[in-house]
Amino acid sequence: MDMETTKTQRVGTREGSGRWPAWLICAALVTVASGCGACQQVIRPAEPTGPGMTCPGGPLCGIVQALMDPIPDNCPTGNCDPGGSGNAKGIYTVEGGNYCFEAMGEQYFCPEAFINTAAGVVLDVRYLNSAKSVIKTQVHGRLAANPNKPVDVLAIHSDRSELTIKYRVQGESTEHIAKGADLSKVILTLRSLAMGSGDASPLVSYEMKFSGYKAPEPDAKTDRVHRYKLEYRDVSFGQGWRQHCAKDGAGTVVAFLPGERVSGMNGSVKLDANVTTMGCEKGSVVTCMAWGYTPWEPSTGVRDEVRDYVYRSCLQAKRAAYFVGKGDFRSYTETGTKIEKWDQYHSGDGTPVERIEALWSPHGVVCFNKENRRKPQAEAWKGQNPNNLKTYGVGPCTSTDFTLEGKLFTGLPPSSGAQP
Fold first, then answer.
1. Which of 109, 77, 104 is nearest to 190 (CA)?
2. How far apart are the first and last CA of the chain?
3. Is residue 248 within 8 Å of 278, Cβ to Cβ?
4. Are residues 150 and 141 in contact, defined by beta-carbon separation less than 8 angstroms?
5. Phi first, then psi: what are they for 263, rounded to 5°?
């Protein structure tokens, strides 16, 4: 399988892929229209990272902590399902893709995050046909070279995006660490997942194996994501191995986000050091990391709150979840749509967005120019009067200033033919 991805130095990128130059060098990219009236809300300054670099003044050097809080899953608008085909609104896989394991010929169980507990590792699995239903199933294992050698899976971690599995062969005392290509030595197993409620519900068991691995390029500036080919099989009904994320298109790989549990309902984040989230490459969880918007500082791996703020904003921006903070969990775009990005801390060959679509926070848009909306004919817009679109009270963007709430602009490429 070809795990190569195309690199680009262009500002405009596709939602499903793309690369982004180095960022978070705090340069004065905009003219500050406001003074320091909101400075008391600043969480921490965005520190200069290069010779002669200084931070913009006023509210540009802070974030609004409240926008880091998770978005409630109550979904008052009723648009809560993961997309009907396992899209998860573009969070875990691109629209038209699928991140759910098949059961009896249908997409059914959607794996989202490994969680380390005192009793071992569990996997959070969402039911595709019941979006609010998430179960925790124990992760077991065996040696790939010897099916009769069961192993205890002690922990699953991710250092930045590099996965490690800590395990011990049953009956032995030595603990082992598998990572990179050595992950293929361990087969992970999930036992007896119920397809419904009641004693008569069919039970499904799976095996999972890592059959391919690609490390980041040594000289990568932003795309430092470790990528893995993951296969699974339904052992209860004797099915053969299948590629996870196969409908994602070419590549069909997964990657891992440490320390953050991303909601499959609305893309909001909860911090948890025991969690490792798994996503298909073209979903926003992984794509935003590949664009360079990692929640950690690349050289040290230390989580940075400002970086994390921009990463969470990207989770919503990449999939055009404009009004997710207002309870509308829909994705207002389609796969392959070109966008431009410009964040407060960007440097290099990036330039300010000319045709501004929106300014983003972790709760969706701070301001929104409906005439520059990403995909005017997207499914989510159907049934609305194009001259009177529902924007949930969000007003237009009247300046190019970043704010305490918004740190990431998106816009249409100059050549885009989109119309209101």
1. 109
2. 41
3. no
4. yes
5. -65, 130
> What is the DSSP pairing of strand 355-361 with strand 408-412?
antiparallel
For residues 311 and 328, what is the distance between their CA atoms, to the nearest angstrom? 20
Phi-psi region of 224 (alpha: psi -120 to 50; beta: other; left: phi over 0): alpha
How do residues 143-197 score in pLDDT, each as one tens digit? 999 999 999 999 999 999 999 999 999 999 999 999 999 999 999 999 999 987 7
Query: Per-residue DSSP letters for 38-103?
Result: TGGG--S-----STT-----GGGG---GGGGSPPPTT-TTS--SS-SSS-GGGSSS-TT----EEE
Q: Which two tokens stand for residue 350?
A: 């990036």
Q: Are 278 and 254 in contact (CB under 8 A)?
A: yes
| Token digits of residue 301 | 């791996």
Torsion, Cα 168 253 3 216, to 10 degrees, reads: -60
pLDDT at 39: 24
Give the whole-angstrom CA distance, residue 330 versus residue 320. Answer: 8
Residues 156, 277 contacting (CB under 8 angstroms): no
Q: By C-alpha distance, which of 20, 72, 148, 138 is closest to 325?
A: 72
d(CA 75, CA 356): 28
Tokens of 217: 């390029």
DSSP code of 6? -
- At 208-265, the pLDDT tens digits run 999 999 999 988 878 999 999 999 999 988 889 999 998 766 667 999 999 999 998 8
